[in-house]
């Protein structure tokens, strides 16, 4: 009898976390490493949100709470969905979890039966397919190519849906590409979904407020009200509010689904941190002016990175609409050899050689389901980004 579960053989550790950990280890060894792998803002949590957490501690709000969120936070979430997305939910339609990842995981665990399929556009966030596998489902990746700006087309979605399809996972703006779907583009997808009433929609809106230029965010149930009863609209405070370590994610959807997710959570983690929940109440209800200031910084950094990487022969770097990532293609570099003698056969080898020879940590594209590319997080200082991009330029210039 094997000690470890067979389930573990179906999944792998998160590559993005692995890259960040490796970069930290190399730095601890005294090596000059610039980490561009972490998907978290370098901004501090705003003072008024921190103050709310401190006040919760001082007021003794440090006990267990309701399994899936305090009433005050659920009310704030309902108000957020109405204010930002025109969606009407009641508190019994809301679930709060320990980060957005737990929300998605709970929903998949609560609904998937063996062999049921989940359509996932690639490039995708690294955890989507593995969470589906852990829940016993079958991830169906559909490649959204560079030629289509990393966006899934209605025809592709139509072709991917089968009688076994349970969920369609949608993420805009996207991790890892930063690509954002316009209302017209999203309407094309929701029109397809309306023709397949057995398919549920899981929309990951974590980067909703990180949008640039004239891009206007929209979410599926907002664009197509007919999908409201089979959509789980997921979000959280991690990215826009610089609260990654506070670990608060949330979702709203049909009561039966929310109840099933509550049951899963009641037997796994129970409630999220009480202190974090009170801080999240302030995040959602309090001032939001800092988001525009942060976005101006992110946009400047995006433009810097896109400009410098686009100067490299063999690299194509689209300009993303949102989030804080770029996803350059290295198709023009495949087959070349680095100054250190490494033949660049794929994007994983490229990323490893870049780290070893130039001390720049990026995440290889195969981790996100679409090669040959790599992901850069520009959620770090302008100085670090300039130096990192200069090193990438030097690395690529030395390829033969």
Automatic annotation (TrEMBL):
Its cofactor is pyridoxal 5'-phosphate. Pfam families: Aminotran_1_2 (PF00155). Keywords: Aminotransferase, Pyridoxal phosphate, Transferase. The keyword Transmembrane does not apply. It catalyses: L-aspartate + 2-oxoglutarate = oxaloacetate + L-glutamate. Residues 31-392 form the Aminotransferase class I/classII large domain. InterPro entries: Aminotransferase_I/II_large (IPR004839), AspAT/PAT-like (IPR050596), NHTrfase_class1_PyrdxlP-BS (IPR004838), PyrdxlP-dep_Trfase (IPR015424), PyrdxlP-dep_Trfase_major (IPR015421), PyrdxlP-dep_Trfase_small (IPR015422). One of its GO terms (molecular function) is L-aspartate:2-oxoglutarate aminotransferase activity. Homodimer. It comes from Aquicoccus porphyridii. Its EC number is 2.6.1.-. This is Aminotransferase. It comes from the Bacteria. One of its GO terms (biological process) is amino acid metabolic process. The keyword Transferase applies. Belongs to the class-I pyridoxal-phosphate-dependent aminotransferase family.
